[in-house]
Every structure is written in C-alpha cells, then in structure tokens.
Amino acid sequence: MSKPYDLLENVLIDIEKGIREGINSDILAAQYALSERHLRRLFTFAFKQSLSDYIRSRKLTASLDDLLKTESNILDISLEYGFDYEWSYIRAFKREFGLTPGDYRKSGQIVKVKPPLRLFDENKMPDGLFFGPDIVMVPRFHVAGKLHRIPSSDSLTLAPEAAKAFWLNERSKIKAAKNGDVYIGLTRYNDNDIGFNGYLTSVQVADFKDIPQGFSKDTFEASLCAKFRYIGQHHYMDINRNAARSMYEAIMKFTHTDHSNYRLLNDKVFFERIDTSLYDGIYCRMEWFAPVAEKK
User: Fold this and answer.
1) Does the model's pTM come out above 0.85?
2) CA 256 to centroid of chain Cα atoms
C-alpha cells in the first residue's frame, strides 16, 4: 500500500491526466484499492476540500480554454469534460465562476480559477504527511481523564505510552463522554513545576457530573489556535517517539518562521486530538492545536 505522500501525490496527478476522461472518486479509489468513502475522507482531511468538488473545479477550469480558443458548442464541451447534460455543466460553471459559459465567451470577464493542488517536501514525513497550520477558533470544552506528571525531556516517549494505556484501560470508565471515539491529550505547563508538564489523557465531556473517582478534569478555554494535521501509514496506537518528534519538529518550524503573522503560545497549553473512528485499516489521522497570538 502506498505511503500517504505517494498516494495523494499520485491521486493529484491522475486527476490532471483524467480531466477529459471522466475521472471520478470511484475510479481513483478502485485504482488504489481503497473504499471511495475512505479516499474521500482522507482527501478532505489533507486538503480541506472535498475530492468531488476539487475534480469538478479542475474540469471547469480546464474547460475555459475550450470556451475561449475553440468554436466548440457548449454541449460538446460539457460532454468532453464528463458532464452528462449541458444544463448540468452550465449550472456547475455558473456556481464556480458566477456567470454562464455563454456569457463568459461574450464578456471577456476575468475569472478566478482553481489551480492544481501540490504536495511539497515540507509536507513529507518518514511514515506520513503533515499539513498546517490553519488558524482556527476553538470553542471552550471540558475533558476528563488521567493526569500524568511527565518530565519534559521524556514527553515524546512517555506521552504516547500514557495515551495508549488510558485508551485501552481507562476511557471506557467515563460513561459521560460526549464522543467516546475521540481521544484528547491535553498538555499544560506549570511555572512552579519547572522541567515537568501535566499531560491529561482524556475524552471530552459535556460537564463534570458523573466523573468517576480518581479521574482528573480540565477545561480548555475558547482560543484562537494554530491547527496542524498529520496522516500516518500506521495504526493510531503506533504513534511513537519518532512520529511525535517529526511532528513537533515541523511545528517548531512554524514557530520560527519570520513571515508568519502569528506566534504559538504552546509554552502554556496545547492538545492533540485523534478521532479513532477515522482509522480505515491503513491510515490514521491526528490533529494538534495550540493557542496563538497575533504578532505586533
């Protein structure tokens, strides 16, 4: 099975090759021995847009050349790019560009097009892909779980081990979990405990009622955050020191990028989020969030 970088890079190449040949998510999924559902979800997680919308936009963008440089009628162009009916092409075209193909030919209007997506070397990791950051607003939420005092120097080793132990042995005891499939690892630093961090292996809860004795609670306040996304060719239980180090090295690059408009506030709190229901038997997905402040 292809590594995530190779898979998604080849999918992007195949889309460009198949623009005039009826390429779609079914064909791509069959070609790479994935279910269409899993390929669509993987593509959306990686590129923040749906696979079908991207293919449609690339077809519509390619059709602009035919509209301006040939005398082909609208029906022939629509069939050339895999639209079953002329009206479906016209409707999709107007939704994409704000005017009909006929009006576009007559008006000479400049339209914004969707260029091909690309993967870059900085996205590539030994067994995965890394994307980000996106700047997002994270609403306030509550978590409950097991709190660990971890030496900062050993966090890349001990945090994944603590996460696995919680997921296998403890999380089922929290009956009030809002979504029992989603793991949240919340890290906090305490100025009075230099050299250590508090790592809460947890699940989200609506409130702190009915939390079993011996479990800790915490609240992440609403914050503007940098969000990073990781795709790995392994089970989420196999996230280890090496994978964690690669992710944090990529995150630190953002911290030291001069042209970024934001700075990370990860010296106080950050969290990772894994939706285990997204695991498809091949690729796992993880998200990492840290508050940010706008640079002055």
Assistant:
1) yes
2) 22
